[in-house]
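Postdoc handover notes: sequence design on the structure in folder B. Input tokens:
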């Protein structure tokens, strides 16, 4: 099969293999850490979690990154990306260990969220750097298949990490602190793996007239305006980012709904709710894997815009139809479709952005990308908090999501023909 041949060719590239190893270890640690936080905040027996509480937690963890995101872009276009992976993962290992200590001591919520926020903030440097570095280890002709394998493999690693965290939490020790420490160990392994990559291999390629760091940080707003102007001059990338942001909004709203269904509608015991959440995470991960297999072929046939339109259109029809019974089995089928559609669109979007923007701007553009992700996700959680009842069953929410998916499908299909 052509896809299998391309995968084998990519895995023969030393730089790609080593960058992929860093991604897999780092994102598996993310999965462990995020599930540990979710079980601590949502499934704690002492808490009566509401959609508003989940939205507040997401806002505390994600919105502040919107303030540091522009600085991340400026720094990613200056710092050796290998060093970002090394020190970023070391720092996260230390901070995750601190979070475990806070869980054990039942520290005040504000202190717990501050620690979690720091881990999340560094995570954005690492993920943006991984995307920006990929074209440095893969030739342009293989970017689509590289984007199918690398970020999707990272997402699967995060899913596997989440499954491992749930297994440790449910089957072995009933301790969120132990699970957080497991994430810290994986962050440390990711830092060690980054040392196998030469310091200068991953870029960035500095331009000759680049200002000094202090001046760049002092003029961050102007630098981001330059990045946005660069993006505006490339409407192909701008449209792809718009579509992906809207799909991220849908994903956030449906995530809150799923958490509430698992917590209250489908189970009466904490362990049963966690088990259902674990199954949902696994099914969604299978959708991510299917997207990695199908997307290179689909993009080759339909183009990135056409494939995005198919993904959004399929979700517009199938996700509300399967979700409306609010029963576990059809909702899990919808989770698979959502995973396939969301990841398929992300692969196409990553490829469009990487191939459309200059290397000197990639760090800033991918930081904008991450900021849009966070704002869309938190905004979706806020909307879900207004709409969702306590048990998570909401026809209006599913209808709203369906309309957004349909709008994206029509939008991308229209511009595919232009």
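Designed sequence:
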């Amino acid at each position: 099969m052509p896809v299998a041949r391309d995968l084998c060719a990519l895995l023969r590239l030393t730089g790609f293999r080593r960058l992929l190893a860093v991604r897999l270890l780092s994102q598996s640690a993310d999965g462990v850490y995020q599930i540990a936080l979710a079980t601590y905040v949502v499934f704690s027996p002492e808490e009566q979690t509401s959609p508003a509480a989940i939205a507040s937690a997401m806002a505390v963890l994600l919105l502040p990154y919107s303030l540091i995101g522009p600085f991340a872009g400026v720094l990613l276009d200056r710092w050796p990306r290998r060093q970002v992976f090394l020190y970023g993962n070391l720092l996260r290992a230390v901070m995750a260990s601190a979070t475990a200590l806070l869980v054990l001591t039942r520290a005040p919520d504000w202190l717990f969220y501050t620690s979690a926020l720091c881990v999340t903030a560094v995570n954005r440097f690492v993920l943006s750097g991984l995307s920006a570095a990929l074209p440095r280890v893969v030739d342009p002709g293989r970017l689509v298949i590289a984007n199918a394998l690398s970020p999707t493999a990272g997402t699967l690693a995060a899913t596997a990490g989440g499954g491992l965290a749930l297994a440790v939490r449910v089957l072995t020790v009933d301790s969120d602190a132990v699970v957080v420490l497991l994430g810290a160990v994986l962050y440390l392994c990711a830092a060690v793996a980054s040392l196998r990559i030469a310091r200068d291999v991953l870029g960035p390629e500095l331009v000759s007239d680049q200002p000094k760091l202090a001046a760049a940080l002092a003029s961050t707003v102007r630098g981001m305006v330059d990045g946005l102007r660069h993006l505006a001059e490339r409407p192909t990338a701008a449209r792809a980012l718009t579509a992906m942001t809207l799909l991220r909004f849908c994903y956030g709203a449906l995530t809150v709904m799923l958490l509430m269904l698992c917590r209250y509608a489908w189970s009466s015991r904490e362990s049963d709710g966690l088990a259902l959440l674990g199954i949902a995470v696994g099914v969604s991960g299978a959708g991510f894997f299917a997207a990695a297999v199908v997307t290179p072929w689909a993009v080759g046939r339909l183009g990135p815009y056409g494939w995005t339109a198919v993904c959004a259109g399929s979700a517009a029809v199938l996700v509300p139809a399967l979700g409306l019974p609010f029963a576990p089995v059809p909702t899990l089928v919808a989770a698979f479709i959502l995973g396939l559609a969301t990841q398929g669109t992300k692969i196409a979007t990553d490829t469009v952005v990487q191939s459309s923007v200059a290397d000197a701007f990639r760090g800033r553009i991918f930081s904008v990308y991450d900021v849009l992700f966070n704002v869309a996700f938190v905004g979706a959680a806020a909307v879900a908090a207004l709409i969702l009842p306590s048990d998570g069953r909401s026809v209006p929410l599913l209808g709203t999501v369906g309309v957004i998916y349909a709008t994206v499908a029509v939008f991308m299909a229209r511009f595919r023909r232009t």
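Context for whoever picks this up: The two ends are 32 Å apart (CA to CA). Don't rerun without checking with the PI first.
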